[in-house]
Every structure is written in structure tokens, then in C-alpha cells.
Specification:
Layout: H1 2-21, E1 28-42, E2 45-59, E3 68-82, E4 88-105, E5 108-121, E6 134-146, E7 152-158, E8 164-174
Antiparallel strand pairs: 1-2, 1-8, 3-4, 4-5, 5-6, 7-8
Length: 176
């Protein structure tokens, strides 16, 4: 009877020991590089193009619960704005991109983005020294599905006072 019991317990104990030696399931869904291209266009002509990149992780939980990670990219200047007799206040002018990623399944990664592009310009039809500059600002909030290796135009914004258009595209690359 003892031999029969040992015959059943030994494989069971070996199986438990082997199960404990397995590495834990990764909580990481993958690391992505997001390459952004922001084009300023006048009609069909590209008059300015800027490139930006960021790294962001899409976490994945072994329970299947989607987690979210965020990343921000900011480039530009802090410009003094006169507040009259109260002095100056500073304003950020440039590019601001905020991205959130969530891995919904092992193959589905969703994103949401806030994109803001701002710049200073002179009012239409005025000389460069004729008064304070005007702040041009384009802002877009978008969401979608990330497809590694494929460019996705996430935003196209027409400037309401000129023929200019801002086109924002992203190319995600899965790194690991």
C-alpha cells in the first residue's frame, strides 16, 4: 500500500515542482516607438514638416484586464505675454502630444491622443512691428487602434483664417 501511494505522490510532487520553476507570465504587452510627422500645408504644398518620436509601453495583465500607460512629448518655447501693469505671464508655444495606450487583447492595442500645435504670427495684413503677435493654435483629440508598421493620419485640421492645414500622422513600431 505504501508503494502504491508513493507511485501516485512522486509524479504529483514532481509536477508541482516543475510548475513552480516556470517563469511567471509577463505583465508587459510590448514596447512601442511612435514616430509622428506633423506637416503644415498651404493648399497642396508642404511648407513645413516636423518629426517627433517617443517610446511607450502597452501593458498587458495576465488577468486580461486592460491597463493604460501615458506618455507626453513637448517641444517649444515659453513666450512672455504682457499683463499690463501686472507684469508678464508666460505661455507655452510649440508642440504638445499626449498619448495613452491600452492593450485590450494580446493582439489589440488601442490609443488615445491629444495633439496641440501653437505658434506666434502677425495679424493678417500688418507689418511685423505693428502690435502684439497672434497665437495660432490647432488642437485635436483622437482615439483608435494601433497597427504596427502602418502610417495612420490621426488628424487633419484646416486653419479657419487661411489656406493652411495641419496634418498629423503616426507610425507605430513594436520594439519588443
Amino acid at each position: 500500500m505504501k508503494k502504491l501511494l508513493l507511485l501516485f505522490l512522486i509524479p504529483l510532487l514532481l509536477g508541482v515542482a516543475a510548475a513552480q520553476e516556470k517563469p511567471p507570465v509577463s505583465d508587459s504587452g510590448g514596447m512601442y516607438r511612435l514616430d509622428f510627422v506633423i506637416k503644415e500645408m498651404d493648399g497642396a504644398k508642404v511648407i513645413n514638416s516636423r518629426n517627433y518620436s517617443m517610446l511607450i509601453e502597452a501593458p498587458w495583465s495576465i488577468t486580461g484586464t486592460a491597463h493604460r500607460t501615458n506618455a507626453d512629448l513637448r517641444a517649444g518655447n515659453r513666450v512672455p505675454v504682457s499683463m499690463g501693469k501686472d507684469g508678464f505671464q508666460y505661455m507655452d508655444v510649440g508642440i504638445n502630444i499626449g498619448v495613452g495606450l491600452a492593450q485590450r487583447t494580446p493582439t489589440l492595442v488601442t490609443f488615445d491622443m491629444n495633439i496641440e500645435v501653437s505658434s506666434l504670427t502677425q495679424p493678417e495684413g500688418t507689418q511685423p512691428s505693428a502690435g502684439p503677435p497672434v497665437v495660432r493654435s490647432e488642437r485635436s483629440t483622437v482615439a483608435g487602434i494601433l497597427t504596427p508598421g502602418k502610417e495612420l493620419v490621426v488628424s487633419s485640421i484646416d486653419d479657419p483664417v487661411s489656406n493652411r492645414r495641419f496634418v498629423v500622422a503616426v507610425v507605430p513600431t513594436k520594439l519588443m
